[in-house]
Amino acid sequence: MNAAARREAWVEGIGFWAPRLAGWPIAREVFRGAATAPVDAAPRPAPALLAPTERRRAPDSVAVALEVAMQACQAAARDPRTLPSVFASTHGDLAITDYTCSTLAAAPTQLSPTKFHNSVHNAAAGYWSIGAGSTAPYTALAADSRTFAQGLLETLVQVESEREPALLVAYDIEARGPVALVSPSTGLLGLSLVLSPVATGRSRLRLVWDIGGAADITPRRCNEAAIPAGNAMASGLPLFEALAEESASIVVLSLGRDLTLQLRIAP
After folding, report:
1. d(CA 150, CA 253)
2. CA 143 to CA 165: how far, in whole Å?
3. How much is the average pLDDT of 141-163?
4. Is the pTM of this model over 0.85?
């Protein structure tokens, strides 16, 4: 890392959700090799932030995003109303995209206003703002296969420049129909972090970060079948595997052609 350009942030809270790893405590143990994932799989999370009626009506993308967002805030003991946030999703809600395309082709007058409302890329961020009562700014972004790294970089830059904590929420869901041929993604996966510019009583690990040139990208280490490796957000898994170890390590993520985000994890 270039010492002159090096920056740092502290990890205060971590959230994780996959169908057989419903929370960071069990995901961390599986990543460490200290436990095996439960056999039973949940079809989707049930975020407590939403009222029961809204919880049932919310699409999968919103459910998984809100679940991990609240997990990270609770782990960090942070009021979600006060945290600026970055919501990163490679594809948004692919199930609604498939529904919208097929309905417009077959019976356009039958398009559901509710599903159309939920089709926008910032739907999860909007639900979060309303459900959490947050008036803090949010950013919603997509960057194809580099979405997790770009979302993390955006969060780190905000933490560094504003000198206040921020929330990263990264998520993608299962692709359906013909859309899956061009935008593949399997299962549900949600990843979240609350990052702070300074160490606090809730600080877990320090991330020293820099932007560099071309370098070997850190591969996934855990081959546990419970982890949805085919999910479009799986590029973020190497960082969470490293965070689970809670020891010194380096993680390199791709930001684009010949551009990388280089992270050194320090206990």
Report:
1. 9
2. 23
3. 97
4. yes
Fold topology of 8-203: Peroxisomal Thiolase; Chain A, domain 1 (3.40.47)
Dist CA 96 CA 117 (whole Å): 10
Per-residue pLDDT, 254: 97
Rounded CA gap, 157 and 267, in Å? Answer: 21
Domain ranges of the chain: 8-203
What are the distances in angstroms from CA 247 to CA 58, 104, 239, 252? 38, 51, 12, 16
- Residue 264 CB coordination number (10 Å): 17
pLDDT average, residue stretch 28-45: 89
Tokens standing for residue 179: 């859309």
Closest among 176, 79, 69, 174 to 127, alpha carbons compared? 69
What pairs with residue 141 in β-bridges? Answer: 88
